[in-house]
Structures are given as structure tokens and as C-alpha cells.
Specification:
single chain; about 325 residues; Rossmann fold; Dihydrodipicolinate Reductase, domain 2; 2 domains; 8-stranded mixed β-sheet; 9 helices
Length: about 325
């Protein structure tokens, strides 16, 4: 059974790295949300917040209404299932484990216990990517091609340990852009490309075919710092839309986009984490659950697994997802 929630949702954040800090900042700026505590083995800069070494201790002492898992990928499965078995809804950072099998275990536990399980993919909840989807759904922009390009900082720490991360650039960062393509166009019909890098991929070049649309993805993570935000250009027969990061910075042949979202203090990766925490908080309060349920995320995780399997031979690949 789903645990009844109070008028205020008390969030526990498991993990206090860069992403965990974004969630803490988002919770503190969300009406109806409170920070119940943090699970971390590291020191924090929040003397007024209860900190715990273990999730079980935090659950017993802080009595949270929901848990955000923002720890390294190899701990997602254990932390999420532990919270679910305690009857607590779980919002898990992408990619929800190291592969689709670990995510499937989390999903199975959540369905067995009747507990909501959701996924954090902060790009798709930003205002301008949602506006693009509305244009596509309304037929106001008939996209024919998409180009996604970015030169990102080199991965480091546990992200370059394949046993902990489950993959490099594509699983850690590229997942956002594969998710946006799926959010806009549905499931890919054909995929070609290559992944390269050691010990994990730091180059991803993909060509994805959707009904009537071809998408080219070219991402690298080889330099000390990024060359700028990832650029996304959507082209139609008589217009275009270009996003720099999460915002539209150029367009033609379409109505003007809505006003840009402000980026609140502490939101290192843009306003998406705040939107997710706000929508998740309200969803728990009114019984709707999370904006992106884990079940809806599974096809993308299986696609990622297929891409990594095809790329394992260290040669260009072409396949048609079933």
C-alpha cells in the first residue's frame, strides 16, 4: 500500500554530489515540500539538516514520505528497492541503475509493493522542450531533421569505471538527448553509429530514424571544460528551431516561444530539477504519482543496452530496434 502523505511531502535525498545538491536546492524552493534529511558518507554544508550514513537509519529516524536517489549508478538498485520495501515512493535519477535489468528489478519491487517509482530526466520538463513537443503534436512544426551536437567536459571519478557507471558518455549524458528524441518523435525505427573511448565511451555518433525524421547525434567528452551548451537544431521544410541547452535561442517559421525560465540558485543543471521536484511533490499530494513513471522509461533503457551491445565489437553498427 502507498503510505499516506502529509499536506507537506518530506523528501529524503540519497546522495549529496552535484546532482544531489540540485535536488536539495529544488526541495527548498518547492511549496509543499520539506527536506527530511540526506543520506551520504561525505560531509555536508547543511548543519541544519539531519544526515545519515545509511538509508535504513534515515527511514527510521526521519520518516520521509518520498526518497530521491541521486547516488552513483551502481547504488541505485539497492537504495531504491530498500526504500520501496519500506513502502516509500522513489524518484530515481537517470539512468536508474547500470542497465535495464537493474531498473526492471526496481520496477518489479515497486509494482509488487504498490509504491510509485519515477525517473528524473530534467531536460524533458523544461519549458522550451515542452513547447517544441506541443508544436509537433499540433502540426505547427513539421520537423524533418534534428542535429544534436556538444563538446562536453571529460568524465571523471566513478563515471569512468564501467563497473560502477554501466557506460560512459551515452549512458551518463547522452541519455538526456535520446530521451528528448523519444519525447518528441516516439520510438526509433533504425539506428546506426559508433561509440568510442576507454575505459568508457567518450564519443557517441548516432543516426536515428523516426517516422519522417532523421536525427544526428554527435557528442564528445574529451576536454577539461565544455565548449558551450549542447546545441539542438530542428529543421522543417520552411522553418527551424534551435535550442542552446534548455532554451530556444533562434527560430523561424513558428510562433515565438514562451518566456525563458529563470534558473534559481543552486540549480547547476538548469530549471528542470525544480520542475520535477515541484510536479512530483504535487503528484504525491494528489495521488497522481511522478511525471515520468519508471515503466515509461524502460524502453529507452532497453535501447541503451542494445546500443552498448552493438558497440561492444568496437566497430560501426546498424540495427533496427524490435
Amino acid at each position: 500500500m502507498i503510505r499516506p502523505v502529509r499536506p507537506v511531502v518530506r523528501w529524503l535525498v540519497a546522495g549529496y554530489g552535484r546532482v544531489g545538491r540540485c535536488h536539495v536546492a529544488a526541495i527548498r524552493q518547492t511549496p509543499g515540500a520539506r527536506l527530511a534529511g540526506i543520506v551520504t558518507l561525505d560531509d555536508t554544508d547543511l548543519p541544519d539538516v539531519p544526515c545519515f550514513d545509511a538509508l535504513a537509519d534515515a527511514v527510521d529516524a526521519a520518516r520521509p514520505d518520498a526518497v530521491i536517489v541521486a547516488a552513483p549508478h551502481d547504488s541505485h538498485r539497492e537504495l531504491a528497492i530498500e526504500a520501496i520495501e519500506a513502502g516509500i515512493p522513489v524518484l530515481c535519477e537517470k539512468p536508474v541503475g547500470r542497465d535495464a535489468a537493474e531498473a526492471a528489478e526496481i520496477r518489479a519491487a515497486a509494482e509488487r509493493r504498490g509504491v510509485p517509482a519515477g525517473v528524473v530526466l530534467n531536460q524533458r520538463v523544461c519549458r522550451h522542450p515542452r513547447w517544441v513537443r506541443t508544436l509537433l503534436e499540433d502540426g505547427a512544426f513539421r520537423c524533418r531533421s534534428v542535429s544534436i551536437r556538444g563538446a562536453l567536459p571529460a568524465l571523471g571519478g566513478w563515471n569512468v569505471d564501467p563497473g560502477r557507471s554501466g557506460g560512459g558518455l551515452l549512458r551518463t549524458v547522452g541519455i538526456h538527448y535520446l530521451d528528448l528524441l523519444r519525447f518528441w518523435f516516439g520510438e526509433a525505427e533504425r539506428i546506426a553509429g559508433t561509440l568510442a573511448g576507454e575505459p568508457v565511451d567518450d564519443l557517441a555518433q548516432l543516426v536515428l530514424r523516426y517516422p519522417g525524421v532523421q536525427a544526428n547525434v554527435d557528442l564528445t567528452a574529451m576536454s577539461p571544460r565544455a565548449s558551450g551548451p549542447v546545441s539542438i537544431r530542428l529543421q522543417s521544410g520552411d522553418g527551424h528551431i534551435r535550442l542552446s541547452g534548455h532554451c530556444v535561442d533562434d527560430f523561424a517559421g513558428v510562433p515565438p516561444p514562451p518566456e525563458r525560465e529563470p534558473v534559481p540558485e543552486g540549480l547547476t543543471y538548469g530549471p528542470g530539477h525544480l520542475s520535477i521536484v515541484r510536479e512530483s511533490t504535487q503528484g504525491l499530494l494528489d495521488g497522481r504519482g511522478f511525471p515520468l513513471p519508471l515503466a515509461e522509461h524502460m524502453p529507452l533503457l532497453r535501447l541503451l543496452d542494445s546500443i552498448y551491445t552493438e558497440a561492444a565489437a568496437n566497430r560501426p553498427f546498424v540495427f533496427e530496434p524490435s
